[in-house]
Amino acid sequence: MPPVLRALPYFEHRTTITFGGRTVDVVPFQIALWVSLARLGETAPAPNARRFPVVLDTGFSGTFAITPAQMRDWAGIEWSSLLLEPGPELLYQNVPVPHRRANLWVYPNQYGWRDAIDPILPPYRLELSRGIAVFGNGECVGVTATRTLTGPRVPLLGLRALSDNPVALQLDPPNRHVWLDGT
Questions:
Q1: How confident is the model over 43-75, as pLDDT tens digits?
Q2: Measured between alpha carbons, how far is 101 from 7 in angstroms, rounded to an integer?
Q3: Is the CATH number 1.10.3470 carried by domain 3-182?
Q4: What is the value of pTM for the model shown?
Q5: Where are the domains of the chain?
Q6: Which of 180, 179, 132 shows the shortest CA–CA distance to 160?
Q7: What is the pLDDT of residues 107-134, one digit of tens each?
Q8: Cβ partners under 8 Å of residue 146, min gap 6
Q9: How far is 8 from 18, CA to CA, in rounded Å?
């Protein structure tokens, strides 16, 4: 299995990540990693793909959650430019949230470092069977009620995204490291 995340650290204290002229807080025990959005059919990251941090949230039952502003400002993609995912919309806070068709590229870290991308290992594509959930966070991204949904402070990568792909996730809590291997 090719390595994706190798001894990716998470911390018991608040940290920050700086990227693209902005800084975001990472609260204690959050697992932060680097991704870029991928349009369906991409076999390699687009040359202009922007990497941005996400939180791996094993308690989030979706695949991926992001706000329209994060898509524009962090990923450089308008949510409306992605095709609507067919099928039933999933409910969050009793509101149907539209899912857009996209995949993710996960960027391998340098061994033992969170914010250093390995320049040799290729990114790993996670295929998102249900697409990405776009929370309105003040904008209407489907039914009017989506405007009222508060999106995540940092985009969330859910356990469903890993479960739908041939990957192996390992946590090493005593050392606060995460490992992810793909096939």
A1: 999 888 999 999 999 999 899 999 999 999 999
A2: 31
A3: no
A4: 0.93
A5: 3-182
A6: 132
A7: 999 999 999 999 999 999 999 988 998 8
A8: 95, 96, 97, 98, 134, 135, 136, 139, 140
A9: 17
